[in-house]
Fold:
Amino acid sequence: MKLDKSDFSEWYNTITKEAELCDLRYGIKGFVVFMPWAVMTMNRMYTLMEKEVEDKGHVPALFPALIPEHYLMKESDHVEGFVPEVFWVTKAGVNELEEKYAMRPTSETAMYSMYALWVHGLKDLPLKIYQRCQVWRHETKATKPFIRSREFYWIEAHNCFATRKDALKQVREDMEMTEEVIHKQYCIPFLFFKRPQWDKFAGAENTYAADTLMPDGRALQLPSTHMLGQNFSKAFDIKYKDENGEDQYVWQTCYGPAISRIYAALIATHGDDKGLVLPFDLAPVQIVMVPIYRDETKATVLKECKKLGKKLSKLYTVKLDDSDNTPGFKFNQWEMKGVPLRIELGPRDIEEGTVMLVRRDTGEKLKVKPADLKKKIKEAAKAIRANLKQNADKWFADKLSFTENIDDLGNKIDMHGFVRVPFCSDKVEAKACADIIKEKYHANVRGALFGSTDKPHGKCIACEKDATIYLYVARQY
Amino acid sequence: MKLDKSDFSEWYNTITKEAELCDLRYGIKGFVVFMPWAVMTMNRMYTLMEKEVEDKGHVPALFPALIPEHYLMKESDHVEGFVPEVFWVTKAGVNELEEKYAMRPTSETAMYSMYALWVHGLKDLPLKIYQRCQVWRHETKATKPFIRSREFYWIEAHNCFATRKDALKQVREDMEMTEEVIHKQYCIPFLFFKRPQWDKFAGAENTYAADTLMPDGRALQLPSTHMLGQNFSKAFDIKYKDENGEDQYVWQTCYGPAISRIYAALIATHGDDKGLVLPFDLAPVQIVMVPIYRDETKATVLKECKKLGKKLSKLYTVKLDDSDNTPGFKFNQWEMKGVPLRIELGPRDIEEGTVMLVRRDTGEKLKVKPADLKKKIKEAAKAIRANLKQNADKWFADKLSFTENIDDLGNKIDMHGFVRVPFCSDKVEAKACADIIKEKYHANVRGALFGSTDKPHGKCIACEKDATIYLYVARQY
Structure:
């Protein structure tokens, strides 16, 4: 199987098939079967993300997958944004339902209907609840496995606060969680944007989102955080009594890391022409053992492998590949699957009292004495993480460019990915300028860099009014 | 809040509310919001069950929640059993769908449509895949939180084998997994039955199931295992080439531990008149620290508590309750929530260099020196598990009775729970006898004890034909 990452779309389609990550032949368009190798990594991604979310004071709950129509209809912007994409349940058994139910496209309206019953006073705040679940959206855009499908897997955290200030603090905390898990642990780089007003979540005051870049230079949205203000608390009547006994609407935020989509970024960021490359902590198999033998040495080698495998299994997920395939076939297969470390063990190694330890990310080979093996594995695991992160960061740094000239913009987007441009504003009235860019280059305005204090100068790249802000442009998924 | 477990139904309703396990006020009948305290325990239950299922060679996958109608219709018994309970998606956005989609009531038809594409030869077998997911059934019976609702959370494992013998071996392995996790780790006792032919899963050759007993003497089904034979493999065309190159249909089993329902059994089995009692490994908070102070000692006591809590947090989930409530209020609250261990710490304890360690299950109090605390906690955790299991087993052993006289059966059911009776057969033609019992005592035949070799004697308790088998009768949820 020949892979060539420079043709990203083809590479991605091939790798998702050859590494057995998903099966696209399920009988509903846009619905994908997630196969074991993908799910095992996604489960590890979930574990790390849920730990972080809980460490930051969120507790898990589970809300129904079905939302009654009258809940969904309570916040008008939200209705407009989501209703066109809703899968509707209208029948149970042979009976028509009196009210139809939406399969949750997102859970604001399910959760906030209950929050209204749960929040009474300051003692109930902040309320920080998340759920791990799947959601359904009848996307009209082309679907691509993990990147965009009509069913996806995520965590959604929904918080209530007494003040706007507390809510804004949560936006910052969400960004820190994204940095901690997605950058430091998954080793995926991103920029954190405040989206322009014309591209915010349906019902939000502001949307913030982490965008990574795929190898073809197109942006992929990772978690987003929505500052909901009091829009939903007013629609759902979520109130608390303040110190003076007066009713106040809560301030709300929500945060939604889509694990299945971040998995797409994981594949794309680290993979190479041999297949997947997985960070050590996210690999379903961390160490594959490949015995090297002839008929007459098979028994001895396998015995030695099993002995060593048993020891290592106490600390790591280890797979001994004792199938009848050739070592070369096995090397290729497990490289395609992205197993971070390979141990080769043959008669000569046994004689010499060593094993060969091979890194997937660099191909580096290390002759190791069994007594040193645990230490060397630990070092290698750490080195792999550092190397993946460093490579990804280095690649990503070069993807950032800037221009003030619209004629130059297309080239810059092609050569890099994200291009910073001066803009008249990020308010709704500036959408016309974004449309000009979209029409000319099929690129989108992704927003302002969160926390940036760069003062813009010159004119808006599209309308030539005085610039008030720097915005970032990229093609997008 | 006064609880009285001898009135089980009332006790159960009160405890699910007072311990904040669920909220029944969601806007769709039979759909319940699972609140954090319940979900945190259910997540721990999932972790233990998934570990066991994976240790037994299953790998995780994720199949779509929606099943196209033509998949669902492929196996005729299955259609008859499930279609009356299906929630149907008929619309996406404003458009009617060409084919309607079922929200999975169970995933045989979703998974086996793919298995037909995945299984080719002996090298693909056994195929052992599970998914962690939720399912939806429009139950017509009365719903009760966790016990029966229209949406529930489970694991479903679906396996393919080359031979009938391998499939039957899996039935036994499923029973062993149930014993290992549900009995040994959750401390819930059960009997493992082979269901009579008139009460098997829609599409199965045979159904096996673990039944526990609720405090009111009614049976609750925990995991079931279905020996599907070749019914589905023929309907879905799941074949492999055998050694002679000839096509053979696979043999199939499936296993379905409903975690949300087993959680109901956990509440019911261990709870008492003070509230929940949770096994140490399943408790969202394992140790609650209650500081005892007056105004003038508050600072010292809290400082000491925090110091100790920080240490213990490295090993256990610890909560320091530093709210303004009185110690007595805190004791009651955390007892209601079932926290296994309480540490009380006041000025006198600090002076004496001890803390008070209190067990939730027995109320036993132990003065412990800080240096011994870790050891004592470890011992207590182990003792709690042993005690919960022993109490539950002892109670359960007394719930098993037998009779050969139908006039005596009602009393026996009332006094115990499970009653063993001689029966003419467990084949479909004996359903009339089961109906007699159902009519007379509102009780059901649960099946034959799996693996029992007791030879029946005498006459069928209902029809007076010669008995061929012992079956067990109980009222049921």
The mean pLDDT of chain B is 96.
